[in-house]
Predict the 3D structure of the following.
Amino acid sequence: MNTKWTLMAALGLMVACNGDKDPSQTEYIDTGVSGEGEGEGEGEGEGDCEVVIAELTPESGATGVYYRDNFEVTFDEDASALGAAASLVDGAGTELGVTMAFDDTGFKATLSPASPLEADTDYTLTVEVCQDSASVIFTTSEYGASLGVDAGELAGNTYNFSLGGAEYTKPEGLGPVLASFLTEPLLIGVNTVDGDNIHILGTQGTESGGEVIPNPAYDVWDFGNATLDGAYFLSSPTNIELGYDCATIPIYDFTLQGTFAADGSSIGGGSATGLGDSRYMGCLIGAGSDPAALCNYAAAVGFTCEECPDGNPYCLTIEAWFDPAPLLPDVTLTLP
């Protein structure tokens, strides 16, 4: 399928649907409501309150929930001043702290555990508001368990992150556009290990003969050292440059985080953030070399480009969440 027309169709659909934005597409306001019931009884009295819980995630029975995930609750009306409370209990009956932070509509709130959960563990999440309550039972994934191998054995490992299969939560509403052209693999490797410090490298990959290998047309990026927290890591911000078809896409302060499987065979819960420079992407949507092309489309769906480090207004904050990244057994990244 022609890439230009795929992108144009996606953009056209987003423009048409812009008048029906999800209430989650807003900034969060921390109200300080917690699982201990702070603020209960404030606002309307329970007898006058008819608000109900419309949705609670994760779904009950969900498995493979990442141990560092936050959760969400949606109400059928503004519940921010109604003393809503949340609690989180593990399979042994131990209650964990959880904070509730409403968005600026009051219809939706993010539920944040006070600390990372345990791997392969059952939990019950409950939310109460006025006369209504909802509970879900879920199980965390394998990620979050302690490394079962010596950290030194990670040296030389390279993992395949799927850019095309990622969920792009920022820029809000433009995720399908990004996923349609950021299709080449992102390779992340462990160069050296010194105690709890791992030296992280990365590059753009390509497919050759059915195998994923580093693309020789692109540099190897040096993310410097990251500290292992159990099996979890967070890279240092690094400027990288992705390429697709006719466009070069600089991403400033690109930061990657994830958790190694206990045996080092994959990285789960991977996510990345950065400031993407869109000025060279006009050719991808049939707009030639116009540096403002993608920003003009972003404006049509209600988003404004940000200032890039050089002062030009062509950048967009990017946030991506990846499926588990498998180990590439025959690939090792090294600095030139």
In short: The first helix runs from residue 3 to 16.
